[in-house]
Amino acid sequence: MEEFHGFNVGLFINKSSRTPAPNLFSFVISDNLYSPFPVLNLHFPDNSGLFLELGNFTQGVPLNIKFGVDTLSKMLDVEFKSSCRDTSEPTAGTPGLNGNLQIKGLHESYFTNRESPHTALKEITVSDAIKKLFPSESKLKVEATKGKIESYAFDDPYQFTRDVLLPQATNGKIRPYVFFRNLLDELHFESISLLEDSSPSEKLLFGDIDNDDAYNTLNSFLPYNESLDKALINFNATSKIFKNDLTFEVENKSVATDAKNKIPVVVDTRIHNDRYFHRQFNPKVEYDQLNNAFYADTMRAGFFVDKVLCTLPLHPNLVAGKTVEVAVSVLDSEGKSELSETFSDKWLIEQSYHSWDGIIKQGQTQLILCRSSMKPRRDSILMDKAFSD
What we know:
This protein is mainly beta. 11% of the residues lie in helices and 38% in strands. It has a 15-stranded mixed sheet that branches. The longest helix has 12 residues.
């Protein structure tokens, strides 16, 4: 690994002990709440064709990324394997087996621990089934579930977990579970509630706030709508809320939430996906049928309707599943700086992207933050009426 302009950067190909010079390649490594396999996108100018000739990026070749900040002693050390490669354009004036290579890599766990379990799961909880399916995971984090299941695990354990076990998981409340692996190689099977309730790992600042820590200062902070695949300038909130009996209300009335003094975040375009927000689990209902319907309706497409896209200097310990406390500065009616009541809050990291650009010799972290509820503004009618019953 090499120290390069304040960064520690290493790309170790096929278990080599040496890395190409960091200014010769660029990459993005990322994780998210909905996949057990972090991914790598690597750009490598192979102008001579030597790396292709030596087979350095064929399928299955190990690619170890080590990436961090020298002064912070924080490091990402992630093992990938090449899944595919492409030559986007040949080297100018040199026709042949060379050019700018685009290599995609999957986390090494995609290629290991994939043997068909062929295991009978009789009268055990979903959480115990997960522990049984992944006994060799040293960083397995599983939240206890309620209700017994009876099934037979076969085929790929990751697919079985996603398709069979995940929809049946409940901790007694109608909040879905997620199954993911982050860039710290932690494999999680936990509920949205547990993740959102975890203590913030960092405090991030944005705007006109005195701060000496550049690594915790956000360069950008923009509301984000995944369905449009771009940042938006604001959210189009609605006063429509749901009561516990699932009937619609168009006034600002009481809603039952798990978080004290917080309300569900609901927008018009997704309102049909949010009918089960914060409702208590009814033990008389067949939980497997209930959660199957809930999972299909509300996971990635609609559970988190309030998201922001932000960037900051490279911050290796900010990965999917962690929470951060964000302080956002805005201008009041008199032009003075104050903390935003709407956006200064705890956020959950839905996706993290850590990138190295060898051309400009710069590292960066990009986060998609999300939340399922928010605290109303102090001047909102919700502060007087939302929590009165």
